[in-house]
Amino acid sequence: EYSWSIVFYLMSHQEGKVLLTDYLKYVSDNKCEPIDTIAFFNTNYATGVNGLEKNWKKWLVEGNKFAVTL
User: What is the CA radius of gyration of the chain?
Assistant: First the structure.
């Protein structure tokens, strides 16, 4: 239901844009291979998946859902 918002969250700041770009490249480079998304974000997001979820939920509560710049 809120999956779109994680992309908006990542696109709302430079580090998130880099992370999302790196993730999409990782997926592209590993075509037809199992993707361990949890491991990717634990390795590449400073505070891991738990921190990503915490920061994303805080961002949602603060009402920044549409604060995306390209």
Answer: 12
What the block records as the tokens of 10 is: 């990542």
Q: How far apart are CA 21 and CA 60, in angstroms?
A: 21
CB 26 within 8 A of CB 40: yes
The total of other beta-carbon atoms located within 10 Å of residue 43's CB is 10
Determine the Cα–Cα distance for residues 27 and 3; give it in Å rounded to an integer.
17
> Per residue in 35-70, pLDDT tens?
999 999 999 999 999 999 999 999 988 876 555 444
The whole model's pTM is what?
Answer: 0.79
Q: Are 7 and 60 in contact (CB under 8 A)?
A: no
